[in-house]
Amino acid sequence: MRRKGFMLAVLLAGLCGAAWSGDIEGKVTGMKGHSVVYVDAVAGKTFPAPKDHPVMDQKGLMFVPHIMVVQQGTTVDFLNSDSVQHNVFWPSVGGDKKATHNLGTWPKGEKRPFTFDKAGVVPLFCNVHPDMSAYIIVSPTPYFAESDDSGNYKIKDVPDGSYTVTVWHEGAKNQSKPVTVSGSGTVDFTLTK
Ligand SMILES: [Cu+2]
């Protein structure tokens, strides 16, 4: 009888341990507009690259969306929806100018894929239209979120553990904070330029 109870306890601990995860949520204040919050690289952990290709469109002489966040290893399809020719290039990835790349120029309705294997912020430009810009934030983990208009964000289903979370916002300094997820976690940020 005692042995049975012990086995049940072991079984429950195993089941629950495997399933324990929660959301990291909080609020980003200090500047208007959407922010991106992501969990930094986790030592000893790698994550399989997602198969979906999000689309970065060029439409009405704008990049759409203006901000995109993807997991490291994601292939982004760059689409030209305009009748005019556009270009896509970035001067750096995560501040590393050696990661500069020019995707070229292509006609309406066509797509060009690019796989972002390096984490960091990718500022996008079009060398035909100097006013066009956008950002792709390449997150080192699958745990990321974009805040809403009020600055609230929620990163879903993060396994219990201790992490560093970083916030990115156009024109602001990146900020990183530690968080421990134990069923859930909360991190707020106040942005500065
Ligand atoms: Cu353009």
Q: What is the element layout, followed by pairings?
A:
Blueprint: H1 2-19, E1 21-29, E2 36-39, E3 55-59, E4 62-64, E5 67-71, E6 74-80, E7 86-90, E8 101-106, E9 111-116, E10 120-125, E11 133-139, E12 144-146, E13 152-159, E14 161-168, E15 175-181, E16 184-186, E17 189-190
Parallel strand pairs: 1-16, 1-17, 3-6, 5-11
Antiparallel strand pairs: 1-13, 2-12, 2-14, 3-4, 6-9, 7-8, 10-11, 14-15
Bound molecules: copper (II) ion (CU).
The total count of strands amounts to 17
Here the CATH topology of the largest domain equals Immunoglobulin-like
Radius of gyration: 20 Å
Question: Counting H and I runs of at least 4 residues, what is the number of helices?
Answer: 1
Specify the CATH architecture of the largest domain: Sandwich
Helix/sheet category: mainly beta
% residues in beta strands: over 45%
Going by CATH, the homologous superfamily of the largest domain would be Cupredoxins -  blue copper proteins
Order of helices and strands: HEEEEEEEEEEEEEEEEE
Please give the largest β-sheet.
4 strands, mixed
Q: CATH class of the largest domain, please?
A: Mainly Beta
Q: Label the overall shape.
A: globular
List low-confidence stretches.
Answer: none
Number of domains: 2
- Quaternary structure classification: single chain
Roughly how much helix do the residues carry, as a percent range?
under 10%
Ligands: copper (II) ion
Distance between the termini: 64 Å
Q: Quick check: average pLDDT?
A: 92
